[in-house]
């Protein structure tokens, strides 16, 4: 999993039928997370808001975590961090 900060949202009127009704957020991984990505787009099934720190699942774990095993999802917000050590949250 990756810890990241929600920095924006996306709106898409045309998308795969399996994604209809879902919200997409732009997430910036926190410094020190093992990822090559500066930002990523994650499906948001829990209602995270801009500025919140979140837990991101990727790949098949993202699809399973949001109960969408056949959807074209590569990253999903699966938790909102209330507080953490190392200055997170």
Descriptive labels:
5-stranded mixed beta barrel, OB fold (Dihydrolipoamide Acetyltransferase, E2P), 89 residues, mainly beta, 5 strands
How would you describe what is shown here?
This protein has 89 residues and is mainly β. The chain has one domain: OB fold (Dihydrolipoamide Acetyltransferase, E2P) (Beta Barrel), CATH 2.40.50. It has 1 helix and 5 strands; from the N terminus they run E-E-E-E-H-E. A 5-stranded mixed barrel has the order 1-2-3-5-4. The longest helix is centred in the C-terminal third of the chain and has 6 residues, at 60-65. The mean pLDDT is 85.
Write the SSE topology.
Blueprint: E1 2-10, E2 23-29, E3 40-44, E4 53-58, H1 60-65, E5 75-80
Parallel strand pairs: 3-5
Antiparallel strand pairs: 1-2, 1-4, 2-3, 4-5
Outline of this structure?
The protein is mainly beta and 89 residues long.
Overall mean pLDDT stands at 85
Overall geometric form: globular
CATH second-level architecture: Beta Barrel
Q: And the CATH topology?
A: OB fold (Dihydrolipoamide Acetyltransferase, E2P)
Low-confidence stretches: none
- Regarding CATH, which class? Mainly Beta
Percent of residues in beta strands = 35-45%
Taking the sheet with the most strands, its summary is: 5 strands, mixed, barrel
User: In the CATH hierarchy, what is the superfamily?
Assistant: EutN/Ccml
Helix fraction by DSSP (H/I, runs of at least 4): under 10%
The rounded distance between the terminal residues' Cα atoms is 16 Å
Give the helix tally. 1
Order of helices and strands: EEEEHE
Q: How many DSSP-defined strands?
A: 5
Counting helices, strands and paired strands, the structural category is: mainly beta
Domains counted in the coordinates: how many?
1
Question: Measured on Cα atoms, how large is the radius of gyration?
Answer: 13 Å
Q: Order the strands across the largest sheet as they lie in space.
A: 1-2-3-5-4
């Amino acid at each position: 999993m990756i810890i990241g900060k929600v920095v924006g949202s996306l709106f898409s009127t045309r998308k795969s039928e399996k994604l209809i009704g879902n919200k997409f957020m732009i997430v910036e991984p926190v410094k020190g997370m093992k990822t090559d990505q500066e930002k990523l787009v994650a499906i948001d099934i829990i209602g995270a808001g801009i500025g919140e720190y979140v837990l991101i699942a990727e790949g098949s774990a993202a699809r399973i975590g949001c109960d969408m095993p056949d959807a074209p999802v590569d990253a999903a917000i699966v938790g909102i961090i209330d507080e953490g050590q190392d200055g997170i949250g």
